[in-house]
Amino acid sequence: MEIKNICCIGAGYVGGPTMAVIALKCPDIKVTVVDLNADRIGAWNGPLENLPIYEPGLAEVVAAARGRNLFFSSEVDKAIEEAEMIFMAVNTPTKTEGEGAGMAADLCYIEACAKNIARVSKTDKIVVEKSTLPVRTAEKIKIILDKEGNGVHFEILSNPEFLAEGTAIQDLFKSDRVLIGGDETKTGILAVQALVDIYANWIPREKILTTNVWSSELAKLASNAMLAQRISSINSLSALCEKTGANIDELSNAIGMDKRIGPHFLKASVGFGGSCFHKDILNLVYLCYHYGLNEAAEYWHQVIKVNDYQKNRFAQKIIDGLGGEIQGKKITILGWAFKANTNDSRESSAIQVSLKLLQKGGSLKIFDPMVKKNQIKIDLKKAFDDLGKSEDELKLILKNIKIVDTIENAISEVNAIAILTEWELFKKYNWKDLSKVKIFDGRNIISENFYSIGRP
After folding, report:
1. Tens digit of each residue's pLDDT (9 = 90 or more) over 334-393
2. Is the distance from CB of 336 to CB of 368 less than 8 angstroms?
3. How much is the CA Rg of the chain, to the nearest whole Å?
4. Which of 102, 126, 202, 409 could form a disulfide with 85 if both were Cys (CB 3.0 to 4.6 A apart)?
5. 331 and 443 inside one domain
6. Are residues 242 and 352 in the same domain?
7. Would you say residue 216 lies in a domain?
8. Are 195 and 226 found together in one domain?
9. pTM over 0.85, yes/no
10. How many CA atoms lie within 13 A of 370 on its CB side?
């Protein structure tokens, strides 16, 4: 099948950047990104400096392709009808109720998306899973499409994303691998080849891997679980280093020089965050329990537990460093994004650390160069809502928060500074001028004269 029109449903962190790069590299294919959120679509069509997602290099890619063969629209049905290939890049949050609540992926948006595709489609379509999904979701999608469709033929492919926020554009330009899963039928093989041909415009063929659908779906969960496991492993050792006098940086270096292990993801920190690791591991845990693999489920669940332990341990270190009592003490939180070079704050370590400090009576000044003030307020409100705090309690707590616009305003007249995102701005700052302020480096980016994770 020749692909001349692509529709992507979902204009978020996956759909927006991925489709922008496909449009850039495939100028003969019309790429339309649709979303029911009109404000988000408006932002994608607006000034480049105000795109809804911050990623280095993204604005330049959008500028090159937007209006030529890259379009952002709220006309979902029209884009579906025109497309030969449809990417599903909608949100798959963790379920909050029902079977699997707190662990399993909530597929309500995926199911709604499939029903809409089935309703609108009048010609054969290739439907591509781009969202992170549990194994055998393609089977559910196929059932919905066949049951509610208009008699047209659908092929379901799995094409998980392996983007790291902050380097997503470079990851798309020079992917370690592109994974495409499809049915091993004649039409399934042709559908897989159609997607292979798109990526082959810029990705070497040897880096495009084809598998069955189930292997592809599981690969994303497994990859994220393995990466997160390395972070939790080194963080668990950082606690031991602090007790024994060992240096976590020296330990990480020694471990990473083993060619069987390698140095990546062995930097101790306050813990991992973001939309993927936490959610995907919980999904993996649920799948293991579902299939009766309790020991495997408990193993992967421990990765999450160690991550939460590290965040709480860091917050407690700040409290202990201020004499064990922080009532009325002023503490600066530097960094709200879960990592540098993104404005994404989902599951950020800063949220959990701030939560504990506020509950202990601390007063916070918060600064992040990219996360908007309103998003910080939303994150905190949700965190306290999850704890069951009343509106009155929330108002009292929020009085102890000040969100500022510059690092200078953030660090003035405070008792302690906690660095929670590894922004370049923080790395370059002259911290030695703040000799009277206790600095807690949760990302190990500044001098050893200050408290950092894993240093005694």
Report:
1. 999 999 999 999 999 999 999 999 999 999 999 999 999 999 999 999 998 888 888 888
2. yes
3. 23
4. 126
5. yes
6. yes
7. no
8. no
9. yes
10. 24
Are 194 and 233 contained in the same domain?
A: no
Distance CA 363, CA 414 (A): 9
Q: Which residue in 7, 26, 276, 288 is the catalytic one? A: 276
Owning domain of residue 440: 222-452
Residue 359 lies in a domain: yes
> How many structural domains is the chain composed of?
2
**Regions of the chain where pLDDT drops below 70:** 447-449, 456
d(CA 433, CA 426): 14
| 284: phi then psi, degrees, rounded to nearest 5 | -65, -40
d(CA 354, CA 335): 11
> What token pair was written down for 423?
């922004």
Residue 256 burial class via C-beta count within 10 angstroms: exposed 0-12, middle 13-18, buried 19 and up: middle
Tokens of 326: 């922080």
If asked whether residues 194 and 263 sit together in one domain, one would say no
Quick check: is 133 in a domain?
Answer: yes
Return d(Cα 386, Cα 96) in angstroms, integer.
11
Task: Report how far Cα 310 is from the mean position of its chain's Cα atoms.
Answer: 19
pLDDT recorded at residue 260 = 96
CA quadruple 167, 172, 173, 174: dihedral sign: positive
Residue 288 a catalytic site member: no
Please tell me whether residues 104 and 251 are part of one structural domain. no
Model pLDDT, residue 294: 98
